Amino acid sequence: xxxxAVIPARxxxxxxxxxxxxxxxxxxxxxxxxxxxVETGLFDEVFVATDSEIxxxxxxxxxxxxxxTGQHETGSDRIAEAVQNIDCDIVINVQGDExxxxxxxxxxxxxxxxxxxxQEISLASLKIKLHEKEEFENPNNVKVITDNNGFAxxxxxxxxxxxxxxxxxxxxxxxxxxxAFRKHALIQFSKLEMKPLEIAEKIECxxxxxxxxxxKMIETNFIGVGIDTPEDLEKARNLLSN
Length: 242
What we know:
Layout (H helix, E strand, L loop, with lengths): L2 E7 L13 E2 L2 E2 H11 L5 E6 L2 H9 L4 E3 L6 H9 L6 E4 L9 H12 L8 E8 L2 H5 L5 E4 L5 E5 L15 E11 H9 L4 H6 L4 H5 L4 E5 L10 H12 L1
Parallel strand pairs: 1-4, 1-6, 4-5, 7-11
Antiparallel strand pairs: 2-3, 6-10, 7-10, 8-9
Helix pairs in contact: 3-6
Pfam family, one: CTP_transf_3
Subcellular location: Cytoplasm
GO molecular function: 3-deoxy-manno-octulosonate cytidylyltransferase activity
């Protein structure tokens, strides 16, 4: 299998505009992310997919590969356009604002497809256990529930499952937005109309479930530093300096 990584990168983020061009040590956030993904050695090629000439030029001037795309509602739609003419079998989506993603969870995602002999899995993604009530109830944390084989049943910003039977211990999991796609499933995704549940929740992977595709969830202990606010950027700078 030919395996590539694509980093969707939008310049105009609603909560923190131009966050990917902020400095993290001596490099920008997006360059740090790109180079860290390349250095894992897991991928045949790594690309940034962007609608911004600023980000495109930032990557290419530092020796990286970038693809210009149109404007899109979701990162998956952006990646689908970027890989249309790229020869590959598996596409890993790494968030541009996650500069410290580790090797192990990426390896786990890739392994899913090596063991999927019947090619029934459209994509794989990560989940991490939540422990605090405020984490379950935070709508910014997308929760996921799975079946006994680890396939996603549903994603929600609400608390799922609802803990009615208090004598029974319930585990809660947060969805981490790192995806591994079969290329053909990704291209198919981009051609499918948004359905009511995706629109209501603003969670793009629900589209796969609404059309009957299978999502394999992998549990991880990885806790990244997603940069969504200026405060997150300071945390990332402190982590880098330490």
